[in-house]
Amino acid sequence: MKQETNNEMDLLLRRLSRRQGVPVSDVDEDHLDADELNSYAENALPAAARERYTEHLAECSSCRELVVQLSGSVPVVAAKETLTIAPSAFRKFLANLLSPMVLRYAVPALGVIIVAGIGLIVLRSSNKAERYVAQSEPAATQPAPAVSQTPDSQAQFYDSAPRTAPKESAGKPATGGEKQEDGKTTSPVHTEPPAPATASDRVEPQANAAAAPIAAAQQVASASPAPPSAPKAVETTDEVRVEVEGRKPQVRGASSNEVARSRNYEAAKDAEKQKRADEETKKTALAPSAQTKSGSQTSGGAFGVAEADRDKGDGVMRSVGGRRFRKQEGMWVDTAYDSGSAIMNVARGSEQYRALIADEPTIKTIADQLEGTIIVVWKSRTYRIR
Amino acid sequence: MNDGASRLLARASDNRSLTRESLAPRISAAVEKYLLRHDPNTPHNDISKFIDEMQADDLCLIIACERGDESAWMDLVERFTATVRSAARSASSNEDAAEDLAQSIWAELYGLRARKDGMPASKLAYYSGRGSLAGWLRAVVAQLAVDTFRKQSRLVQTEEDTDLDRLARDTQVAEGQPLLAGMANPEESMSNRFAQTDMQQALSTSVQELPAEDRLLVKLYYFDNLRLREAGAVLGVHEATASRRLTRIQTGLRKRVAKFLIDERGWTQAETERSFAELAQNLDTDLEAILTKEGVS
User: Which chain B residues are Cβ-neighbours of A21 within 8 angstroms?
Assistant: First the structure.
């Protein structure tokens, strides 16, 4: 209603202005002078004076016209307009940025993009984790090579053949059924003894070259209640882990990242520990000079034999003591050997070896006829004779 | 007054070696013009405030120029040549006219004519120092341009003026017609004509009774066809303020018009309302007529 009223008055006033026209005063002396016009336009007059001039301007179109001109060119106003260009542009930009159209379409689109980006990142990170787990699982079976690159751990080089054994055995209980000579599964055997006494195994490669030091080492190792085991560092690691975990069943099917990582770490740690134990053993058994010399020679000789065996003997079959052996990477491996079976390490000349051959003379025949490391399956048990 | 002149000299960044005695007459003239002429009992504080708000540097420069200070003249020309040229260009139809106007301004400022006392009759004497010197120069240029145009207009009666006069006569004839053109009933037509005349008189009277500032706004907006921003600039208010003020004026005018029609013309309240309602119903028709006329003119 009020707007309508204003429209009516607006129309009436426009009509009135057309009828009356713009009255022009012809009395020059009644006009404002330049100083008054300028002072009015710059709003620099006292209130009373301004009111008087306003009265005049309301009636005098000539002065009004000049004041309008001057008001449009007042420097202060121009400066203000100049100064407000930048903020107004910025405000315009902000207004455009926050316009309803942008808020309606661009913001949801931006949200979708952000969500998609986050999802992509999460997906990629999960894929990375899966790949890492997939890579770390086989890597977990190979901590020994990394450690065995040092000359002192060359003994583990001989264990390269059953490297996948820990992984394969990881899915099986350590106490799982072992195969008899005919390959049939029998009742499970007790878990392999843990690894603390594997020092004797570590010095096994040196046994061929230096029996006395190894015997001394075995004596040191035999002080441990557990029999030597761990055909290689990984197995040793697994066994140690079993011991650490309170002799839990070796169910290693859970292939989590942490498990693989801890397995690697423990394997490396254990291998390092074994190396140090070997060194200590050697130091106590040999004279420093002789130890160094024989050790280096032994290591070199063993390495040379291994290289030779690997180069020329792989795949050769021999039958000894009623069993068939295949040469694999420098070792004679019983054809009945299952890589998933638990292996008991026995060093030639050790008490354990003497006890074994006393009970099973055929094993002595096999050990005498086959040089180097032998893996033989005998009465549901697997022995690695070195 | 001398104290005020001393304060003004102290405020000036370059007092041009002027003394307060040389400034006092100019300051006194400004106080007389803007304060004491209409209120001889202006308080002393108001006078001091008025003096303290004067443009000290500009006033010193102008007075130094009046006193023949060459360096002051050089400063004046150097600082304000662009201002004068710009104002002359705005007030002129072409570049030559603008250049002539600018030269005329400098001649007026310098005072080619002599006063009775032998001093040059310079326009600088009219600068009070209340507003800025640049604004004053623009006002001088604008006034001179208007005077020049008037002189030329008196000499030449153009064909365009004749056309405008004819158009004005046509408009007056058309506006003498009833509001709703084409009405068949003569009695009704006559009645409407009287009503429209009363309405026009009521509105004219009501506008004249408005306060000066409101009346000025109405004149600026409706008679001079300024935009609200421009009208607000003249009044020293923002566009939004001018808009609100105009709305208030329209509302007040309607009441004044209704009161005039009832009190002075004997209309009833119902007739007044009906007249406004008929006006509102025919807004479109009237606006169309306005646009047509504006297109013709």
Answer: 168
Q: Tell me the backbone φ, ψ of residue A191, rounded to 5 degrees.
A: -65, 150
Contacts of B230 in chain A (CB under 8 A): 68, 71-72
State which amino acid sits at residue B97. A
10-residue mean pLDDT profile of chain B (297 residues): values are: 86 87 90 88 89 92 90 92 90 87 87 70 88 92 84 60 54 47 56 75 87 90 88 89 91 88 86 78 52 43
**Distance from C-alpha of A279 to C-alpha of A169, rounded to nearest angstrom:** 30
Burial A240-253 (b: 16+ CB within 10 A, else e): bbbbeeeeeebebe
CA distance B201 to B185: 24
- Top residue of A1, A20, A24, A39 to mutate, by most chain B CBs within 10 Å, is A39
Tokens 């557990």, located at residue:
A226
Please answer whether residues A345 and A381 qualify as being in contact, where contact means their C-beta atoms are separated by less than 8 angstroms.
no
Q: Is the model's pLDDT at A116 over the cut of 90?
A: yes
Q: What whole-number distance in Å separates Cα of residue B24 and Cα of residue B18?
A: 11
Cα A13–chain centre separation: 82
Reported as type and span, the H/E element at residue A342 is none
For chain A, give every domain's residue range: 2-83, 95-138, 141-385
Burial of B23 from C-beta contacts in 10 A (0-12 / 13-18 / 19+): buried
CB contact under 8 A, B254 and A58: no
Write down the pLDDT at residue B127: 92
Interval A245-274 mean pLDDT? 54
Per the DSSP assignment, residues forming a β-bridge with A377 are A382
Handedness of CA B8, B13, B19, B23 (dihedral sign): negative
Q: Identify the burial level of B135 via C-beta atoms within 10 angstroms of its C-beta, where 0-12 means exposed, 13-18 middle and 19 or more buried.
A: buried
3-state secondary structure of A344: strand
Highest mean pLDDT among A19-33, A222-236, A326-340: A326-340
Q: What's the rounded Cα separation, in Å, for the pair A286 and A292?
A: 9
For chain A, the average pLDDT equals 63
Closest among A248, A227, A222, A250 to A238, alpha carbons compared: A250
> pLDDT of A184-237, one tens digit each?
433 444 434 444 434 344 434 343 433 443 444 444 444 444 444 434 444 444
Estimate to the nearest angstrom the gap between the alpha carbon of B264 and the chain centroid.
33
The phi and psi torsions of B120 (rounded to 5 degrees) equal -60, 140
Instruction: Set out the domains of chain B in order of their start, with CATH numbers.
Output: 2-152 (no CATH), 177-296 (1.10.10.10)
- A61 contacts B219? CB cut-off 8 A: yes
Q: What is the ipTM of this complex?
A: 0.78
| Residue at token pair 């004997």 | B266
